[in-house]
Amino acid sequence: MKLAITGPTSGIGAITFQELVPVCEKVYFLARNAEKANLEIKKLRPEYQEKVQFIPMDLADLETVKTASEKIQESTDSIDVLINNAGGIFSQYEKTKDGFELSFSANHLGHFLLTNLLLPQLLESANPKVINVSSEAHRAAKVHFDDLQFEKNNYSAFNAYANVKLFNILFSKSLKEKFGDQGLKSYALHPGVVKTNFGKEANGIFKLFWKLATPFMIDANQGARTSIFLAKTQLPDNQNGYYYKNSKPSVPSREARSQKYRDKLWEISLEHSTPWMS
């Protein structure tokens, strides 16, 4: 298996990386922080470290996403599994250097661009998969497609997060619709409410919820199980595009199943990412 994974320096991404390296021929470790990346890679046995290639990439800087995809393309003709794991919730409204709201870029648009740039390599695989880490928070999404960057409406960290987690599911279903007949499998998943550093950036009512829920949260090892399951398991064709929870199919929200939402999100995402596509 040749694997590319985003956000493997901590939390469920790190566990997913550690558990999958032994069954991989090659792993492309996509992360912002070289120091954290090196520390994570050095936790592996020496023979496993040789399989891993760190490639710097910041999902909030789309030029680095393009550069990262080019480095992967220089290294291999095929990718078997792409795990779009990285993400976060951001307490303050912030725009990236490319002009996008930070949560939109870091949780959705960066992965949309990366996946599309790597499609030629994915479609060269005998059994290509794209796995998008979403969340049950998608059920709280309130999407205004005319204001995805929160330029008209007041910014809410949780609303922004819920929206992009919905987008992860919509994106997965669109990939199945557009490329499933070429062999691509695409899945979204809820990892569970995981006790990691994730909630530290939250504020307001979400921060209070995170604090109250902490004693009941699962650990990163448990949270990574569904990602690992999807990466390793050959699933029935009729489950392509599905949303998974606890390693089983789960029915997402009505909005997550909306063809109108899927098509609109793809149209907008393609328009935003086109400057980095060529």
Question: Quaternary state, please?
Answer: single chain
User: How many DSSP-defined strands?
Assistant: 8
Shape: globular
Give the overall pLDDT as a whole number.
93
Order of helices and strands: EHEHHEHEHHEHEHHHEEH
- What is the end-to-end distance? 27 Å
- Low-pLDDT runs of 5+ residues are none
Description:
This protein has 278 residues and is of the alpha/beta class. The chain has 11 helices and 8 strands. The protein has helices spanning 11-20, 34-41, 46-49, 62-75, 102-117, 119-122, 157-179, 204-213, 220-223, 225-232, 259-273; strands spanning 2-6, 26-31, 52-56, 81-84, 129-133, 185-190, 243-245, 248-250.
Short description:
The protein has helices spanning 11-20, 34-41, 46-49, 62-75, 102-117, 119-122, 157-179, 204-213, 220-223, 225-232, 259-273; strands at 2-6, 26-31, 52-56, 81-84, 129-133, 185-190, 243-245, 248-250. The chain has 278 residues and is α/β, with parallel strands linked by helices.
Q: Which secondary structure elements does this structure contain, and how are they paired or packed?
A:
Layout: E1 2-6, H1 11-20, E2 26-31, H2 34-41, H3 46-49, E3 52-56, H4 62-75, E4 81-84, H5 102-117, H6 119-122, E5 129-133, H7 157-179, E6 185-190, H8 204-213, H9 220-223, H10 225-232, E7 243-245, E8 248-250, H11 259-273
Parallel strand pairs: 1-2, 1-4, 2-3, 4-5, 5-6, 6-7
Antiparallel strand pairs: 7-8
